[in-house]
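Progress against Task 2.4 (sequence-to-structure conversion) is shown through the following example record, which the project officer requested during the mid-term review.
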Amino acid sequence: MEQINKNIALLLMQNIWLSILILASCIATSGCESITPKYNIIKNSTSFAKDAFGSIEPTKFDTADFQASDGTKLRYRFLTPSHSIQGKSYPLVLQLHGSGGVGTDNLTQLDRLAKTWAVSDVRERYQAYVLIPQFPIRSANYGPPSSDQHAEPTAALNAALELVEDFTAHHAVDKSKIYAVGFSMGGSAAWLSPTLRPNLFAAVVPVSGIAPADSSAPTFKNLSILIIHGNSDTENPITADRRFFNELVRIGGKNIQFREYDGIDHQLPAEIYPGYWWRDWLFKQSRQ
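Structure tokens generated for the chain above:
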């Protein structure tokens, strides 16, 4: 009986030490809730209104121009923290537009998702820089739907990442909290951004985009990722995102969440705004 009690005590001690190790691992990363990949299918969802935030004036965003090292010229809009404190640094969100925003008017890149950052409650809650470049050409290219469909970056995306680096050098940006967010072509560009700058981003949120080739997966292994896609999307089918998610899980990626919206086509899900659930998650992520 005494030996049995000793064995039980030893087992309890082992379990306690295991719990301590797990807790330490959670603290060292972005939190226990995201320590393993998650795949959720969201039912009974609706699309974000197409005319949402039409009343948000472009003048809420500052304007500027940038020329990359290869000569590519980018016009861009940006927001600064509404209550900045001298000596403090702030996260930066690179907000990437879809193909409908391609141009040089420095206006049409302000899509619905971009405009949500200027709404007072969102801007107050998230003290950050939001950088919204306008691509003069496509930022990402991909072929027709297929089992291996994947996105490839263009020179314009590389120019936008040079802009991020330049902007960061001249503003009080927290370099451990730089994020890429985008819808449609912008979602593909969000996916591709870490492939061009592996050490720049803490997290990416691609919405209805096309993922990169599986060969890029090791770049994302230690990155925080939130994938949002409707399973009725025929413009950018969900297949590529599912493929890449599976590859990330296979190679040991952990802080990955996939939210598949049942019945939603090539649209933003309604819960994208105010979207405290995904924005709170985003701003908790830091590059280690």
